[in-house]
User: What shape does this take?
Amino acid sequence: MDSKKFIDEKIKEIEGIEGRAVVGCSGGVDSTVAAVIAGKALNDDLLAIYVDTGYMRKNETENISSVFETMGINHRIIDAREEFYEAMKGINDPEEKRKIIGNKFIDVFEREAEKFDADYLVQGTIAPDWIESGGENRDTIKSHHNVGGLPEEMGLDLIEPLYDLYKDEVREVARELGLETAEKQPFPGPGLAIRVMGEATPERTEVVREACYIVEDEIGKAVENGELDRPWQYFAVLLPVKTVGVHGDKRAYGHTVAIRAVYSTDAMTANFSKIPLDVLDRISTRITNKMKNEVNRVVYDITNKPPGTIEWE
Assistant: This one.
């Protein structure tokens, strides 16, 4: 793919719209590329919106302002944590989670678009999103929040410049644009809500947020030390079970955390990463020491895609 040609073509397409637009931007590679391309086409007629759903990675919200400043794009950070937590109360089914979050995103975007007098919503939707979301004789693997999670009726017209690209192609475009996020590992649109198996309460989300941070930090250090090649994606999942353990000489009854790390190129298939045991040992020890009152068991997922998906939900 000729990345420069692709960028020029998409800028010209977006320049042809009449009116203003908002872009949902999480700081990940897909939404950032979409935002930068749309920004080059629309300039001050584009507003980037970052929504803190309460299901973001550790320090993500604190760091996003500098990302927007670097991109030189008008932006607004929306604290919608309470709104999302309220909507997710009692919800356990993965598909229901994704659809609720997709609908809540649109609620926020439409509110902000009205304030900005915008008629369009730019999204970083890529090919695996709509392929896995089903439709047109395709089975639904999982409804991505920006496709299968959209409401039937919307007040905004969609612009999706990356719709036909796969993740490796998006990274090529990001490199052409000179974006640091080009090598950033993927993060799901519904965020940590789908890394908490079962109800994603604020308390359970905080456990998986810290566990994900530790996994990312320890694997990042191991990559820098030459202990392994950087996986495509690596994170933690909070399981909906408790097991018996021991802390000191006392009985413990705590959560189980699963570690997931995979190698892939386009997210359509993946192989589990053969993480060295010393690295897994450091991750497990740090998680159980840091969260000794919540977590007492750590396991490693050795499932490829297929039959598993990369994310657990």
Notes: The chain has a mean pLDDT of 90. Residues 195-300 form a domain with the GMP Synthetase; Chain A, domain 3 fold (CATH 3.30.300.10).
